[in-house]
Amino acid sequence: MSTGALAGVAAALRGPDGPLTMVATADAIAAFRGVELALFSWLGRVAPACGSPAEVVWASSASLRAAWRATELETLLPVSAGLTATAGGEAGHGAAAGLASLVGEATSAESGVPAAVLSFYDVLLEAYRFRLERASPAADGPLQRVLERITGDLEAECNLVRGLVKAPGRGA
Length: 172
Prior knowledge:
elongated, Ferritin, mainly alpha
């Protein structure tokens, strides 16, 4: 995925700067959840075609971890008349388009699935941190706790992928 495309995905996922209304918060959470669900689906589909047994195991496990993150985010979505119509909005569509581009590149790139996913994970992690830094301790306590758990999980995932990419026989 090109740097410009990644920047566009990052901007779409971050959402607006500053305090958010309840609807804008729901949109941001739904966009994150949509991306995690797309990662869950895609990683599960490409796992059997990965280059090595270690990559197959990683992709299968990473798929399940993305599903866990999506479930964590789902618990934060407000249930109210009028919110479901906007939840996910443009940010979710922009991020999904970015993920579709990632899928195309990852399946054709020599670097393989883990290296391609790592660049997207970095963007996703940056977007989670952006939203976490702007969360209000008074109004966004549950959001902060979930984003801290998700950020920790994704940081661990990035470290795992970096180790996999640097594994013997993959080049350094």
